[in-house]
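Support request from a user on the community tier.

User writes: "When I paste my structure tokens into the form, the page sometimes reloads and wipes my input. The last time it worked, I copied everything first. Here is what I submitted, just in case something in the input itself triggers the reload:"
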């Protein structure tokens, strides 16, 4: 992924800066970009400026067949993406945020599981009551081993304290 796709970085940066002008085309591009490089930074300004429209697309991505697109669904709504400004749109649209993560909680890919766990970990640091709400909901009905792993990974910072 990262060995072949570096040439796409400037295009992703262009979409990051100007993508809100044509949201539909930009989101379609970001979906394809993430299959070859990464779209997680390009989508954040779109999510900040047009949250409702962008989140609808991210919900669809959380059910996509492509593992990179599903991971992007999680990464795009993280509060604290490394090397990026914090983004609180996920908390402001909490019900949709829960839908996105819940769609991914049983994902078989460790790549996606780690992202969802990191997402919960970030949420726990900022809004522990919201993270607990998700964890309690997921823990109620015999969670899968994937969900259990995500919860454990999401709680790792609390165990360090």
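"...and here is what came back when it finally went through:"
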């Amino acid at each position: 992924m990262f060995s072949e796709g570096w040439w796409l970085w400037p295009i992703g940066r262009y979409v990051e800066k100007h993508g809100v002008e044509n949201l539909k085309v930009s989101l379609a591009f970001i979906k394809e970009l993430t299959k070859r490089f990464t779209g997680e930074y390009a989508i954040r300004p779109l999510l900040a400026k047009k949250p409702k429209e962008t989140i609808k697309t991210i919900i669809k991505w959380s059910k996509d067949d492509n593992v990179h697109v599903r991971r992007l669904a999680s990464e795009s709504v993280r509060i604290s993406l490394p090397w990026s400004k914090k983004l609180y749109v996920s908390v402001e649209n909490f019900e949709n945020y829960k839908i996105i993560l819940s769609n991914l909680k049983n994902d078989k890919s460790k790549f996606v599981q780690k992202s969802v766990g990191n997402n919960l970990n970030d949420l726990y640091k900022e809004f522990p009551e919201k993270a607990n709400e998700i964890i309690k909901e997921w823990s109620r009905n015999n969670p899968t081993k994937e969900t259990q792993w995500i919860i454990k990974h999401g709680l790792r910072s609390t165990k360090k304290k």
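Agent notes: The reload is a front-end session timeout and is unrelated to the input. Residues 8 and 37 are 7 Å apart (CA to CA). The mean pLDDT is 92. Escalated to web team.
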